[in-house]
Structure formats: C-alpha cells, structure tokens
C-alpha cells in the first residue's frame, strides 16, 4: 500500500518575475543557505539571456528550457523472483520538473572556468533549443526506458 502523500512546501513566488517555478529553481541553485547570492546569479543569468536571445522576457526561455529538459518516462528498479528488473514508468509532473531543474543545475555546475551565471545562461538557452547536457541526460533516460520496454508488464 502506498504511503500518504506529504504536504509539499509551497514556495512564495519570485518578487521580480512573480513566478513560483523560478523561486523553486533559485532554491535549487542555492548553496549553504545563501539565497541572495543565488538570486543575484539568476538576475545576471536573465540579463545574459535577454542579451543573447534578444527576447525581452527571459522567463519564456526559462519555462521552455524546463519543459524541454523534463523526461516523460524513466526506469525504476524492482526485485522480482531474485532478479532486479529496470521497469519503465511514467514520470509525474512534479518529478519531471524537479529532474529538469536538477539536470540543468548540475550541467551548469559541471562546466569549469566560467562564472556560474554565464554557464547557467548557456545551459538554459541550449535546453530551450533542445540541446545541451540536460537534454542529453533526458534522452539517455528515455533510451533506458525504451530498451527496457519488455518489462513494462511488471509495473506496479
């Protein structure tokens, strides 16, 4: 039997763009409780996105990048009869968004030699064009799910 769904913490919207998703992403970027630093990084990132894309509303690019980077299926491990099977399952919308945020953040942190706001802007622009490390991670996840499609009948 499944556990009771926890009451999720609802984040207050960002005060510049009035977006809950952006505030959640700022929380993902934050290190050691330094939220103001994370906000400054996002401000600088959005300035670079405005400059590079020519779009006056960088929130559109951000939303498109998050939508493109979120996987629709993933594999979960399940033990059946002494063997572990990778079972493909649909991804809930909250998890899809959480994975997209994590993959974009990790891809930006992975690049060395440039400030975070430059790396993050490049990754968001690439993800909005269906390119970049986060999109590659999503495609790898989909390939794993496709390869294990034969075990879908074990899904719970």
UniProtKB/TrEMBL annotation:
The highest taxon in the source lineage is Bacteria
GO CC terms, sorted: small ribosomal subunit
Listed GO molecular functions? rRNA binding; structural constituent of ribosome; tRNA binding
What SUPFAM superfamilies would the database entry show? Ribosomal protein S7
Q: Mention one GO biological process in which this protein takes part, according to its record.
A: translation
Q: Which Pfam families does the protein's record reference?
A: Ribosomal_S7
Tell me which residues make up the Small ribosomal subunit protein uS7 domain: 2-149
InterPro entries this protein is in? Answer: Ribosomal_uS7, Ribosomal_uS7_bac/org-type, Ribosomal_uS7_dom, Ribosomal_uS7_dom_sf
Entries under Gene3D superfamilies matching the protein: Ribosomal protein S7 domain
> Keyword Ion transport, does the record have it?
no
Report TM segments.
none
The record's keywords, sorted A to Z, are: Ribonucleoprotein, Ribosomal protein, RNA-binding, rRNA-binding, tRNA-binding
Q: Which PANTHER family match?
A: RIBOSOMAL PROTEIN S7
Report the function annotation for this chain: One of the primary rRNA binding proteins, it binds directly to 16S rRNA where it nucleates assembly of the head domain of the 30S subunit. Is located at the subunit interface close to the decoding center, probably blocks exit of the E-site tRNA.
Per UniProt, subunit arrangement is: Part of the 30S ribosomal subunit. Contacts proteins S9 and S11.
HAMAP family assigned to the protein according to its UniProt record, in alphabetical order? Ribosomal_uS7_B
Q: Which family does it belong to?
A: Belongs to the universal ribosomal protein uS7 family.
Q: What is this protein called?
A: Small ribosomal subunit protein uS7
């Amino acid at each position: 039997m499944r556990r009771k769904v926890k009451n999720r913490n609802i984040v207050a919207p960002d005060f510049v763009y009035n977006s809950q998703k952006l505030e959640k992403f700022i929380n993902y970027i934050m290190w050691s409780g330094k939220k103001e630093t994370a906000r400054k990084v996002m401000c600088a990132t959005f300035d670079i996105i405005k400059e590079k894309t020519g779009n006056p509303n960088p929130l559109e690019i951000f939303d498109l990048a998050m939508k493109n980077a979120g996987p629709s299926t993933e594999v979960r491990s399940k033990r059946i009869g002494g063997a572990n099977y990778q079972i493909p399952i649909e991804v809930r919308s909250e998890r899809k968004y959480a994975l997209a945020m994590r993959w974009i953040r990790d891809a930006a942190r992975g690049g060395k030699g440039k400030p975070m706001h430059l790396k993050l802007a490049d990754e968001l622009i690439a993800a909005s064009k269906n390119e970049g490390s986060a999109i590659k991670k999503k495609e790898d996840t989909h390939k794993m799910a496709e390869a294990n499609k034969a075990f879908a009948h074990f899904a719970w």
